[in-house]
Amino acid sequence: MSTWYERGVFYHMYPLGMTGAPKHNDATEVTNRFEELSQWIPHIRSLGCNAVYIGPLFESTSHGYDTRDYKLVDRRLGDNGAFKDFVEQCHDSGIRVVVDGVFNHTGREFFAFKDIQEKKWDSPYRDWYKGVNFDWQSPCGDPFGYDAWQGHFELPCLNLFNPAVRAYLFDVIRFWVDEFDIDGIRLDCANVLDFNFMKEMRQETARMKEDFWLMGEVIHGDYSRWVNPEMLHSVTNYELHKSLYSGFNDHNFFEIAHNVRRLEAIGRQLYTFVDNHDEDRIASKLKLKEHLIPIYLCLFTLPGIPSIYYGGEWGVEGKRTNTSDEALRPAIAISQSDGLKCELTEFISAIGRIHDENEALHGGRYQELLLTNRQYAFARHGEDSVIITAVNNDDNEVEIDVPVPVPAREAVSLLEDGSGEAVLPVSDGKVHIKLRGNRGAVLKLKGEN
């Protein structure tokens, strides 16, 4: 029996942005924006999503990754009770909830850092941070120096080698599970976290909740170093992300197929996406808007756990600048959704339903069937079924003969988009498929010859 995350389709919510919350947390009062976020739940389900990754969530100073208090929800979003209600509503709708775990660094207003500011070398927390040195001042005016994440001194790095820090953070996770009943954590900056810390976290969280999911933010490197039975269940598949948009932009399916083959050993567990809160919107990256539908078709049917970043289902555009990510994190009210709906929205709902209903897409073995620069077909092998996906990135309609990897009588089309026949015969071990320009097909094999 597969786990919930192996069957997962995620909806990625950046709550401070999507609700239009203030950029800086200066208020003393709490503003409940979870009432607004809860209104998204029916829409999220309509897309076929059964999980949300929402974050950052916890009390912070500005963008959410400069944590002030790990046990308080950011007052710009609501209080702990409001978030607890949100999780309950998600669970009632069949949606799991994964939150950001920002454990590499804190903000400068975190209690341990403030204690060092006040007491200097007499602080019992002086070893809670990396590189604390009382011989110099930080650029922020602190009476000591310290290691900061990528030189951003508003983000001092925690010393995860300190057992007291690890114990504190595991207690925080236990609080999140007990108080809010979360289902998993996305580890911010997992690429620089101590491996032993993550191994210990895997052991601790496995005892807290069955099927608790740990996913790490990793951009480069050998993903199997992080994704293994001792550490994380998944990491962000930036390699597939890059090959998807450049493969479509360059009309080069070889780049995508090469990447999938290379990652196949772990690829079925990786968290896949076409955009997120740190990357330019895919609608802005693609040279041709017509490629939005086939790129989402690849996202949902290639190996991996697919994720939609809020607004992506409407083809929302946005590019970061040298100084700001705000364009990637716009305020969108769910009341606007009817006006934003487009052909892509309906397509994602359809492919989301197909993903949900076909276990071969939840972790089935991948097999490449046909590959040219502009056409690509592959199979996913489930326990009792085989799904074939065929994609065309050319503007013109094409006809292709795709090898069928198992004995079959016919192939039934699961996408009702008028691109071809509903039932296609298998002849001489191949299925003849017509593909519209910049579209694709998803077929389910039926019956032996």
TrEMBL record:
Any Pfam family hit: Alpha-amylase
Lineage top rank: taxon: Bacteria
Residues annotated as domain Glycosyl hydrolase family 13 catalytic: 8-357
Chemical reaction(s) catalysed: Endohydrolysis of (1->4)-alpha-D-glucosidic linkages in polysaccharides containing three or more (1->4)-alpha-linked D-glucose units
Coiled coil: none
Keyword Hydrolase: yes
EC number(s) stated in the UniProt entry for this protein: 3.2.1.1
CDD domains (alphabetical): AmyAc_euk_bac_CMD_like
Keywords: Carbohydrate metabolism, Glycosidase, Hydrolase
GO molecular function, one term: hydrolase activity
Keyword Hydrolase: yes
InterPro entries named among the record's database cross-references: Alpha_amylase, GH, GH13_cat_dom, Glyco_hydro_b
Similarity comment text for this entry: Belongs to the glycosyl hydrolase 13 family.
UniProt protein name: Alpha-amylase
Organism, scientific name: Enterocloster hominis (ex Hitch et al. 2024)
Upper taxonomic lineage: Bacteria, Bacillati, Bacillota, Clostridia, Lachnospirales
